[in-house]
Amino acid sequence: VPRALSGIQPTAGSFHLGNYLGAVRQYVALQDTHDAFYMVVDLHAITVPQDPVELRANTRTAAAQLLAAGLDPDRCTLFIQSHVPEHAQLAWVMNCITGFGEASRMTQFKDKSAKQGADRATVGLFTYPILQVADILLYQADAVPVGEDQRQHIELTRDLAERFNGRFGQTFTAPVPYIVKEVAKIYDLQDPGAKMSKSAANPKGLVNLLDDPKVSAKKFRSAVTDTDTVIRYDEKDKPGVSNLLRIHSALTGTGIPELERQYEGKGYGALKTDLAEIFVEWVTPFHDRTREYLDDPETLDSVLAKGAEKARSVAAETLAAAYDRIGFVPAK
Ligand code: AQP
């Protein structure tokens, strides 16, 4: 059975719709076809400042949302990254075979450090992609379900896996990104040229799954479209409408050509109002399920403990192999 691995950051109190459609939904689907490992990446989260109380709460909330979205602890391994120390250990090794220039070319670092100001960006933020490389290689993952913004990091993972294997002998599987084109990039509702992101300039463009559904419905109803009136999929000339059509299609399973037919002769208002309703109907049970997991911390913690144990057994084996190839003396 092929392996899948992915991680999501606990950097906000809620996942947003881009996280869900671009990544989490694929996590759920891959449970059926892959030996799947999913983690809440708290080590990644601290590459930018975090309040300790919030980080702890957000990490649990992230795990609860993953379960609410449909991850089944009997069919996948769900854990918290910091529970498996091998991530930090292999990351160090990978840091030591990564070129400084190579790491400097990562566009996410460039964007995020530019936003923060170069003096405030940490070395951790710079080496974030290399920690991600370690995350993936530890599990010998074949497929990594992610959104389009992560493609470059998966390419780096392949490069470093091949470099290590070439230098020290076959050790790691080189993974491929698992990116579903239709939902690879969900755009901001107010700025359809930008990816929906938790650091959105305008909060009205960002749909958080755990926000009050009424608030989210309003965001859909006031989404930016264009001055034309025709509902047609056209990424270039109608990015706002196309984004709404993609979201509609992803949530209802209706193909985009069929949606174009359904909305023929109707205005943007109809599309937005429908989408608001569809979203609320989908998200309401998601809230309830998330709340149930959060209200039962014993069950949640036991799922995460079991997940960490299973993850560690796989990760420890890979790390031992890597240490051995490098020439470290085995600890007795
Ligand atoms: N807009 C998006 N469309 C599709 N996929 C997306 N992802 C994120 N945004 C979109 C995917 O979600 C997964 C988890 O991402 P993450 O843990 O890196 O989350 P994040 O970085 O906190 O999400 P943001 O909002 O993108 O954060 P900032 O604002 O910090 O950049 C990944 O698979 C990602 O591709």
Automatic annotation (TrEMBL):
A motif ('KMSKS' region) lies at residues 195-199. The keyword Ligase applies. InterPro entries: aa-tRNA-synth_I_CS, aa-tRNA-synth_Ic, Rossmann-like_a/b/a_fold, Trp-tRNA-ligase, Trp-tRNA-ligase_bac-type, Trp-tRNA_synthetase. ATP binds at residues 9-11, 18-19, 147-149, 186, 195-199. GO terms for molecular function: tryptophan-tRNA ligase activity. NCBIfam families: trpS. Catalyzes the attachment of tryptophan to tRNA(Trp). The gene is trpS. It is found in: Cytoplasm. Belongs to the class-I aminoacyl-tRNA synthetase family. Its EC number is 6.1.1.2. L-tryptophan binds at residue 135. It comes from Actinacidiphila epipremni. Keywords: Aminoacyl-tRNA synthetase, ATP-binding, Cytoplasm, Ligase, Nucleotide-binding, Protein biosynthesis. This is Tryptophan--tRNA ligase.
